[in-house]
């Protein structure tokens, strides 16, 4: 078992649960979801810059051969952060996150099945479909 990656994912999941209400507080205070998301990204960028400077320092030229779609990660992240800050206070955090997780799992099944975006091909199985269906049942239960 790989303890460190599992621990890292669990801690990142906690961070993702805390991020929407944190950004929503900024949005409420400022009156702007977009400003709140921007501040979140500035803080995140500065954090990553400090970590990169202290621990890594891989030259920016290393990414020059990346495919065009690989540059869109920040776009998806910005959309996610802004939408979560908008939706969490309106739908409730648990509902917002279970809906987001459900949609992520559907996308993950498709990406895995077809081996898209550089992933290895992992076929969809009945068991995986049942697991994702249970998440959507969870969305309905959490929403009630």
TrEMBL record:
**Chain ranges passing through the membrane:** 33-55, 67-87, 93-111, 123-142
What InterPro entries has UniProt attached to this entry? YdcZ
Instruction: Report if keyword Membrane is assigned.
Output: yes
Q: Which UniProt keywords apply?
A: Membrane, Transmembrane, Transmembrane helix
**Cellular component GO terms, alphabetical:** plasma membrane
Q: Enumerate the PANTHER family for this protein.
A: INNER MEMBRANE PROTEIN YDCZ
Q: What is this protein called?
A: DMT family transporter
